[in-house]
Amino acid sequence: MAKVMIADDAAFMRAVLKDILTSAGYEIVAEATNGSEAVDYYQQHKPDIVTMDITMPKMDGLEALKKIKALDPAAKVVMCTAMGQQAMVIESIQAGAKDFIVKPFQPQRVLEALKKVLAQ
C-alpha cells in the first residue's frame, strides 16, 4: 500500500488522519508538525503522497507545497483545510496540490481523495 506523510501542527488532527489511513491499509512513514519539517521529511522518506495542512507554524502548508514541488515536480500533495479557506485552496491547486480535504475529516472523503490522487 502507499506510503503517506502527514503534515499538521495539531497532534489530534494527525492522529485522526493516521487512524483513517492506517485502518485502510496505508503506511504512515512520517508526521511533520510544521512546513519546514514537511519539506525535510519529504526528502528523507520519499512518501507516495502527502496530506498537508494549510495553516502551520514556521512555514505554512502552501509554502511547504511549493518547496516540495520544486524538489519533486511529480510530488502528490493533498491539502487539508478548515472551512473558509477557499482562497488558500485555489492558490494551493495552482501551486500543484492534487486535491484538498476539509476538516473535520470525513473518512470516506479522505480515502477517496487519496485513492484518486494516487491513480493519477
Q: How would you name the CATH homologous superfamily?
A: Response regulator
| Number of helical elements | 5
In the CATH classification, which architecture applies?
3-Layer(aba) Sandwich
C-alpha termini separation: 16 Å
How many separate domains?
Answer: 1
How confident is the prediction overall: mean pLDDT? 96
Tell me, briefly, the overall form: globular
Describe the structure.
By secondary structure, this protein is of the alpha/beta class. It has one domain (3-119): Response regulator (Rossmann fold). Helices cover 48% and strands 21% of the residues. It has five helices and five strands. The chain has helices at 11-23, 35-45, 61-71, 86-94, 107-119; strands at 3-7, 27-32, 49-53, 77-81, 99-102. Strands 2-1-3-4-5 form a five-stranded parallel beta sheet, with helices on both faces. α1 (11-23) links the parallel β1 and β2 (27-32). α2 (35-45) runs parallel beside α3. The chain starts with a strand and ends with a helix.
Question: What would the keywords be for this entry?
Answer:
single chain, 120 residues, alpha/beta, Rossmann fold, 5-stranded parallel beta sheet, 5 strands
